[in-house]
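Let's practice the habit of predicting before peeking. Look at the sequence and jot down your guess about where helices and strands might fall. Then scroll down.
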Amino acid sequence: MVGKFGKLAIAIGMATLVVGVALSIRLAHQPPPVFPIPEAAPVSAGDATSPTEIEADRRRNLEFERDQETAPFARWPGVARREGDVLIIRAGDSDAASFTDTGYCDGFDQCGRWRFRGVWRLGGRDYPWLTFFHGEGEETAYIVDATGRLVRAQGEPLASPDGRWLVVAYDDPDTDGAVAVFEAGPRGLRLEAASDIAACQAGAWKSNRRLTMTCTDSDAMKGQRSLVAELVRDARGWRITPSAELDAKTRQPLAQPTRPLVDVEIPAVNDEGAPEDDSYEVEKGYRRL
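Done guessing? Here is the structure:
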C-alpha cells in the first residue's frame, strides 16, 4: 500500500513529466535562439591603408632580392640588364630573352620573380643563369643559351673545372630533392643524367669527374639521415657513392653507420636536344626576343 506521502510524490512526478513533455513539444516548434552578434569595432582613419601604402607594399614585393643582382651585373657587364620589372639577357650583340616579374608573392604559384645570378663558362661558351621563384618552395635555376632558349633544373648550378659538366642539385625536406648533370658540347647543353630520388647539396669538385656532396637518405621506417658522398662518373655512368653517415647533432662522421651505405645510380637520359615546353615560363613573364 502506498502512503499519503508516496501518493504525493507520485502526483508531483506525474505533474513534472506532463509539464516537461508540454515544454518539449512547445520548444520543438520554436526557432532556435538567436545570439546577438557583437558589433564590429569602429575603424579609425589611422587604421585604413592608403593607396600610396598599398602601392609601396606592391613595389617592395616586386623588387624583393633585386639588390642581389648588383654584384653579378657589375661582374658580367653587358650580359644582362634590368629595365624596371623586366630583366633582359643579351647574347652577342642582340637581346636574346626577357623576363618580367609578375603577380604578388604571398603563396604557392602566385607570382614570378626572375633574378640574374651570373654566368657559367661551359664548353667554351658563356651561359647566363637565373633563378625563378613563384611564391613558395625552392627556386628553380635557368640557364639561357645563345638563342634565348631555357634549360631548367631545380637547385644551384656548379660547373666542373674543365667546363664540360654542369651539375644542378638540391635537397629539400618537404619536396625531397633531385640531381641533374648537363654536358656542354658544340650544340649547347645536353642533359646527360638525372634523378629525382637523390636528395643532395653540391660541395666542391675534386676533379672533372668527382664532386663532393652532402645527401639525405630517407627511409619510411627508420627516418632520415645525412651522408657524406661523392658524385662520380666512370665507365658505368654517374652515381652517388656515400662514404660516411653524419651525426644528427654534431654533423661529424659516425664511426659506424646506423644502416648500410648504398650507392645511388643517376640514370642516363636520352636527350636529343629538343626544346623544352616553356608555356609555364611564358605565363610567368618569359619571352624569347
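How did you do? The first helix runs from residue 4 to 28.
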